[in-house]
Amino acid sequence: MDTGAGVEAAARRVRHARHVGDVGARVRPVVAESWQRSLDLGVDLARSATYVGHEPGPAAVAEAEEVFDRFLDGTARLDCAVLLVDGDGIVRVRRDACPDLAALLDAVLVAPGFRIAEQDVATTASALVRATGRAARVDGPEHLHPDLACLTEAAAPVPSDTDAAPQTVVVVAHLSAPGGASALRAAVAAELARQVGERVRDREHRSGRMLHARFDDVCARSGAEWVVATDGRATLCSPGFRALPREDRDHLLDRALADAALADPPPAGSTAELPSGRRDDVVTSVVRDGAAVVGHVSSGRRSLPVPAGSRTTDAMRRQGSHVAPTARRDFAADFRDAHADGAAAEVRRRANRELLSPYLRARRDVAAAVAARTRHLLLVGEPGVGKQTLAVEQFRRSHPSGSVQVLDCARIAESGGPLLPTVRGTDGDRPRLLVLRRLPLLGSVAARRLDESLRVLVATPAAPTVVGCIDTPSVDATRPYGLLLRHFHDTVRVPALRYRADELGDLARSVLHSLSGGRSLSLSMQVLRVLEGYAWPGNLRELEDVLRYVIARKPVGVVQAPDLPSSCFTGGAPRMSMLEAAQCDVIIQALYEARGNRYQAAELLGIARSSLYRKIDAFGISYIG
């Protein structure tokens, strides 16, 4: 077996012939086998890694980041980079000790969010680990892909108790690095993989201990009437909590599970209106393990009763999010009552916040359902609003090790065997999510087939959470998919992008970062104003298309208004919808009460001042004072 120039010549022949053949005798057998697998998978050696996104999935991202940072902080300068590659070949974490090497890895797209599997870039050390289950190395021309031939890698699998494809720690250096350091890189990869594996195994026990400790501390020190803590899997309840009426306990548990499922920490202090009629002041604290949120602890006590005329139920709030006022409102009525009850004001503030931010309500409802694993949801909204993305995102946050399966209802045949083998899992109690896309495209026969499969599936132990997606603003039970409605417990309406103007800037930046692969590209304030003023009939899909157009025209730098497609500047102002009319109405009332003071109006509405300013501009509200 040759080395150096011989391996390089063998790689050139394989690239040209698209077959290993007798050339494999010149390289290590494990490398030759990987070359052949890559060719069989149709690898395109003229392209670089494939971008698939930053969704963490089941990878040990938090543990790897902590271990890698501690290693690099306590070590002298090394001319290497350290990577965590998940079982699908996707780079999840990268830490750089050498700026020059970091620039090189960026250039060849060995970066977080990019897949470097054999079907994408041919042979890598992480691919050999996945194929053999053992530590591996790949040096220089052993990389069949010419862009990677200047690198040398050492990789080791992260120890795991599961049968899933191994996650891999990879130490990468330039081929010009000292040859004697090869053994050192292999030892470093093995040690870092061991440390990551230990932290992953200890994750659940460590999180549970931290949650118990915070729960005991709150019970002992807060003086609260009741305390409940959860990490989304286990729930701790104080004696006072168990003494509450059953419907109140269920309400508070749903609230706690939703807080645990959402990535954003809940407000530290809030108010809970309980089904029994009592109203409690609730204090919520976040339990963190490093940067990761591992649970929430909520405590509460009875607050002052709400006047009967001021009580706003959940049903009323949901109705108010899509029904416009039916009579002229006296905007000065509440302003005249300068001594309005503070508790009632807090209730109104919460209702206004949900009215002005309908997506937050939808996200909270989805998070609570997927965390509980007992409620099947029907997501309704215009095409492209991100229904499937919302369901998968919240499921991943609640169940990082869970599995997700997406079934496209438009592709279900009108005949054939039962669908159940397609959608049933084999992982026992492992949380599962089944997403039914494009339900309205089901035919009559396909709907009956799917109904039969779901009827059996939801009755099995450890059944998956089922989420159906309807790409229309309303549900038509007379269509074939109406047969499936009995399987769902609740309906969540996902608002269109035009109703999310206050968060459109953050959304655009996030999408731009994902599409650009982390390049130095940003949006000017003028561009953000144009995006916020556009109606977005295509919702998130149209936003992604617009930003792809922008990236093609301007791959780096600051995006200015002329870089946007002309479609963003066409079309008159759309007619105000019922939801927009209700939002405009409540903003005007808050401005009257605050005598035009926008700071106070934002506080009354329970939203950020920047969100209020954007909505005032969007609705064209004149000065009120």
UniProtKB/TrEMBL annotation:
Keyword line: ATP-binding, Nucleotide-binding, Transcription, Transcription regulation
Stretch forming the signal peptide: none
A family per Pfam: HTH_8
Molecular function as annotated in GO: ATP binding; sequence-specific DNA binding
Entries under PROSITE patterns matching the protein: SIGMA54_INTERACT_4
Protein name, per record: Transcriptional regulator of acetoin/glycerol metabolism
Transmembrane segments: none
InterPro entries the record matches: AAA_lid_NorR (IPR058031), GAF-like_dom_sf (IPR029016), Homeodomain-like_sf (IPR009057), HTH_Fis (IPR002197), P-loop_NTPase (IPR027417), Sigma_54_int (IPR002078)
Domain Sigma-54 factor interaction: 432-552
GO BP terms, alphabetized: regulation of DNA-templated transcription
